[in-house]
Amino acid sequence: MLTGINAAIIGGDARQLEVIRKLTELDAHLYLVGFDQLDHGFTGATKMDLDDLPLEEIDALILPVSGSGPKGEIDTIFSNQKIQITEEMMSKLKEDCTVFSGITNDYLTACTSSAGKKHIKLFERDDVAIYNAIPTVEGTIMMVIQHTDFTIHQSNIMVLGFGRVGFTVARTFANLGANVSVGARRSEHIARITELGFKPFHLQDLENEVSSIDVCINTIPAQIITSNVISKIPSHTLIIDLASKPGGTDFRFAEKRGIKALLAPGLPGIVAPKTAGKIIANVLTQLLIEERNKGKG
Fold it and tell me: Which residues form the Alanine dehydrogenase/pyridine nucleotide transhydrogenase NAD(H)-binding domain (predicted)?
C-alpha cells in the first residue's frame, strides 16, 4: 500500500489514467495538474493548477513519459492550459521528493540536478522498455499497413538500431514474412542479427544499403537518416521514425523528395494506452514502495 504517500501527476496522455487508477487503489493521495478537462473523478485525487500545488508536501513528482519540452513545457491531452516546470519549482519540492519520467532531456536533467532531486527515468529500465516494445511494434505494423499499398510479406524492411525496440521490431516483421535487414554499430549486435537470420550491416554503410528498401523503421534518437541517405532511397519508401523527438530523420528533405516520413514517438500511448499505462503503473508502484522503505531504513 502507498498510504501516506503524496504524489503529483503533471500532464501526460491516456497512459497516466492507469497510473492514477493504480496509485489511488493503493491509497496514495494524488494531486493532478493538467487534468481539468478530464470528466472522470478519482477518489483520493485532487485536480488543481500548478501554482496551487503544495510542493513542500510532495513525495513523488510524476511527469509524462516524454518528460518535458526543451523549455520545460509539459504535454497534456486533458487540458488547454500552458504548463511549464522550472528549476525554481523543483527546488521547492520536499527535500527527499523523487521525480519520475519516461525519458529526459537536457532541460529536465538540469532542473532536477540543480534542485538536488533524485530523477528516475523509467524507460532506462530494461523491463519497462521491453514491455513497452510490444505496443510500439503493434502500432508500427498498423502504420505500415495504413500508409502503404503493398503487403508486409515479402517486403524489404530495414530497421535502424538493435536495442530493445529494434530487436522486437525486426523479429516481428520477419515473422510476418518480410525480408528484414538491420543496421547496428556494435559488433555483438551484428553477430546477433546474423544469428537470427536477418541481413546485418554496419550503420556507417547505411547509404549503400537503402537502394531497394520498401520501409525504413528508425529507432535511433540521433540524425541517422540524413539528406544523403534519403537521396538514395526509392521514392515509394515509407519511413517510420520511432525515436523520441525530434527523431533521427531529415523530414524536410524527405518531404522535398516526396518521400513519406512519419515521426511516431509515443506509439504505445496512442494504440494501447491501457496496456502501456499498466506497464508504467506497475513499475512506478514498485519503485514508490522501495523509495518509501529506504526512507524508513
Answer: 142-292
